[in-house]
Amino acid sequence: MFKEDSVIVSSRHPTRRGLVIETSENDANNSDTADGGGPVPTGFVKVSVLDRTAPFLARETDCTLVDRAMALGDIVRTRSEFAQSGFVVSVSIQASLEHCISSRVISGVDTARICYAHALEKGMLVTCDNWIGEITELSDAIAIWIPSSDSIVAPANADLIIPDDGFHEESHFALARYAPGQSVTSVSRIRGTPVAFVLAASAENFTNGTWLRGGYTRGCQSENGLKIAGVKPLRAQVLWTVYNSLMNTENFQVAPPPENVDVSRLTVLSSCFEPSSFQLGDIVALKDEAAARQVLALDGHITAETSPYLFTWRIIETKTVVSVQWQDASVSQNIAAVELIPCLHPDELEFWPSDYVKLVRSEETSRPAAFDRIGMVISMNFSERTAKVRWFDVEINELQGPEIEYSVYELEMHPDMQFRIADRVILTQPLHPTSSDWIGEVLGIQSTDGRVRVRFFGSGEIQAVPPKLLLSYQDEDDGDEDLSEYSDDLDDEMAMRDEAQVDSNSDSDSDMNSSSQASWETDDEFADEMVGTEDMPGMAESIDALKETHIASTAHDIESTTAAWQLFKSCDTAPLNHHFYGDGEIEFSRAFHQRIRKEYCVLSSSLPQGILVRVYEDRMDLLRVLVVGPAGTPYEGALFLFDVGLPGEYPQTPPTVHFHSWVPSSGRINPNLYEDGKVCLSLLGTWDAGERSESWVPAKSSLLQVFVSIQSLVLTREPYFNEPGYEKQIGTSEGMLNSRLYNERLYLLVLKNVEYVVRHPPLGFEREVRYHFYALGWLRKIVEIANTIIAKSTLGDMENHGGAGSQDSSTFPIVTASAGCVKLIKARVACLSSLL
Fold it and tell me: Which residue stretches does the UniProt record annotate as biased composition, category Low complexity (predicted)?
């Protein structure tokens, strides 16, 4: 089940439909649900039924899916496993309507025939004085219909009128605003209200009101069956966001309209796609007033303007069908929405027809201008991970030339041109001198020339616009992430490393057992108090795998194991390019020194084989850690560098860890390891897991625990599921597919990482890098694994088609790869082979 699914819960409400308002996956990152009862358990959904009950938890097996909400542009798949995805290009809804006064039901109403009962709603986009804004609040005047006398009054104080439509206050269907036809009651009928106040307040509220029809009769305010006759918005609170820059030829500052504005000054940006937005419970009206009178047998003199309450309906059932354009550019028409699965977590390298793309920057190319070109995806081969692209001619702003096939790993979405059908867009320059159009909505993208078909709100005209002239309204206020800083950091790091090598800073080869380290000796019993690997659930098996990482090899045996592969070593001076070196030396307390000495003692004796730690005599607050990718994971045999800084309050405050990303602007190599160096781990306080046992505990937590957590809990076999909330996809077809695609993509980053480390070994680990990749043969083994993947993929290993790996956790998780991935693996293997 998915959020906003329309369901029948057979065990409790066999005849009433409801909406799924929360699922276990939607609620994965929330510690409390709407009712404060905790997260939705797996296998359950929270449902709000169209009746008087409060939302409740229901087993998914007790829910019958009757309709599924779909929006234009939604990414979907069929129920077939590992099928290509597509996006919704049209939505058609048939609705059943229940009259708000008579409860009469009409069925099979196309939502193109209805409109919302309110002309203005929260969330609507409006314009005023060449500004665009979003309505955040509305102030209304209401009128009440008194059935016994057929009178209508606008009460003096609307706050003394309360809903009486029977919906629970927490129900999804409880109206946030009064609506025509809604049942209400006077405050006089609230139990517990003092009698004197009841009599005075209720009577005055009606007698002092404005009578639009009829007049006050004694006790009318206490009658049953009072209805909202009409709702008139008076003022709106608007968040103004964008000014029409086409009007600002002098580039001066233009003040927005007042935040609180009379609604008569507002123009609604009415979408032609409104019929696709309706769902269960909405209050609507028929657009054809004459047809509504005929259905309800109303006299001809009764109009929606004078008696809106007689023309309102509630949607009590929907049936949605959609058309979908698939990645291979084919289109399927009139698919029942319940037959499709929403794709909530598409892979970052999924593309669809009409997506605007550019080439990924690569150091291998000698034509940097190629990266500035704009292309458009014509089709994508989902299983092969390739896409056919045509490129724009910059002179005429149209697609020119033939389709060219690329690996999806060579492409990325254009950051400034991401348009989908129904998106609002802003024009950056006039299409012609006399045009006043500046904001519109996307109707589609022309496959012939790549231009965007836009319907402009002002004139209603439809124009084909070059994508370079448009900005997405949704992205107008979003700041672009500056990925260039990663390249700058990388250049600075390499410069500092070269400078440090010239200075020939020497490292001490002595370890903790040498006499020169006597000042760091400590009580042996501390090792028993610290959290060890045996206290960390799930780590023992991973550490066993790490011990198998170093294969026996005599080839290129340039140094002895003890000299070239010391797990713990003390060095004289910290490297200048340590990420926290510039924080400066500070005075540390005696307790800090004692704790650090104890930590070093534990590290010197308890590190697993795949973790190397360097500490420094001149900076006790700094450590550098080299982690070997565990066997049976996509990271197998690769090396990863972390810099650690200890705050003066340590251990009351956890350490700070920085990850050195050597593949800048290529994406994260792990969900927990960011390109800017952030390490996302609950133990470090960089992720709130909500569990005390996973947080830093000064008396128990240790540096050893942090390092082992990084290696065994971060560098995992299926790191896709490290993403918060994604663990609930384990065992599902979507989860298996997404994990497989994620492993394929990150494997390319791992190969790139290996090449960088071999060419530029980090300061303090030069000998270890040579020993690992040459003496132990890991560079050759990594090349052999890659060549095996290439060979099996080329032969078409049907048993593991598409990159699926063996379930044996000791084997490499990727057996075959897509053609698009193989293309880049070959390029990486060529580079690595040249280093053998």
Answer: 503-516
Residues 6+ apart with CB under 8 A from 480: 415
| SS3 state of residue 64 | strand
Identify the DSSP state of 622. Answer: E
SS3 453: strand
Judged by phi (left if over 0) then psi (alpha if -120 to 50, else beta), residue 568 lies in beta
Distance CA(586)–CA(621), nearest Å, equals: 9
Measured from the Cβ of residue 791, the count of other Cβ atoms closer than 10 Å reads 12
The alpha carbon of residue 4 and the mean position of all alpha carbons in its chain are separated, in whole angstroms, by: 18
Are the CB atoms for 2 and 342 separated by under 8 Å?
A: yes
Distances (CA, A) of 679 to 83, 498, 649: 34, 26, 20
User: What's the CA gap between 738 and 732, in Å, rounded?
Assistant: 10
Task: Estimate the crossing angle of helix 778-795 against helix 733-759, to 10 degrees.
Answer: 140
Per-residue model confidence (pLDDT) at position 108: 95
Q: In what order do the strands lie in the sheet with 611-616?
A: 568-571, 611-616, 619-628, 639-645, 656-659
Q: What are phi and psi of 305, to 5 degrees?
A: -75, -40
Q: What angle do CA 234, 240, 242 make, to 5 degrees?
A: 140
Who wins on pLDDT, 695 or 796?
695
Indicate the pTM of the whole model: 0.81
Domain ranges of the chain: 125-267, 356-475, 510-549+566-721+732-833
Known catalytic residue: 115?
A: no
**pLDDT band, residue 248 (cuts 50/70/90):** low
Encode burial over 550-587: b for 16+ CB neighbours within 10 A, e otherwise: beeeeebeeeeeeebbbbbbbbebbbebbbbbeeeeee
Instruction: Give the dihedral of Cα atoms 37, 39, 44, 48; nearest 10 deg.
Output: 60
For the record, the structure tokens of 481 come out as: 């992430």
Give per-residue pLDDT as tens, 89-121.
Answer: 999 999 999 999 999 999 999 999 999 999 999
Which listed residue (100, 601, 680, 821) is catalytic?
Answer: 680
Say what angle helices 819-833 and 733-759 make with each other, to 10 degrees.
Answer: 20
Instruction: Answer yes or no: are the C-beta atoms of 60 and 40 closer than 8 Å.
Output: no
Going from the C-alpha of 634 to that of each of 599, 768, 814, the distances in angstroms are 31, 21, 7
Structure tokens of 32?
A: 């409390």
Q: Is the pLDDT of residue 492 over 60?
A: no
d(CA 470, CA 420): 12
Say yes or no to pLDDT of 144 above 70: yes
Percent share of the chain, pLDDT over 70: 81
CB 19 within 8 A of CB 171: no
Token digits of residue 153 = 């009054």
How far apart, in Å, are the Cα atoms of 729 and each of 273, 388, 633, 714, 738? 33, 31, 19, 18, 9
Read off the pLDDT of residues 559-604 as tens digits, 9 standing for 90 and up.
444 567 899 999 999 999 999 998 866 788 888 999 999 999 999 9
Residue 785: both structure tokens together: 């694994």
* Separation of alpha carbons 429 and 246, rounded Å: 6
Fold of 510-549+566-721+732-833: Ubiquitin Conjugating Enzyme (3.10.110)
Q: Give which of 217, 186, 212, 216 is closest to 201, Cα–Cα.
A: 186
Q: What is the mean pLDDT of the chain?
A: 83
Grouping H, G, I as helix, E, B as strand and the rest as coil, residue 646 is: coil
Question: For residue 257, what pLDDT is reported?
Answer: 95
- Smallest CA-to-CA distance from 42 within 737, 735, 807 is with 735
Beta strands in 111-186 (DSSP E): 114-116, 125-128, 131-146, 151-154, 161-163, 184-186
Token pair belonging to 635 = 């990271």
Cα–Cα distance between 112 and 83 in angstroms, integer?
Answer: 32
Give CA angle at 152 (148, 157), nearest 5°.
115
Q: What CA–CA distance (Å, rounded) separates 13 from 21? A: 16
pLDDT at 283: 95
In this structure, the chain runs to a length of 836
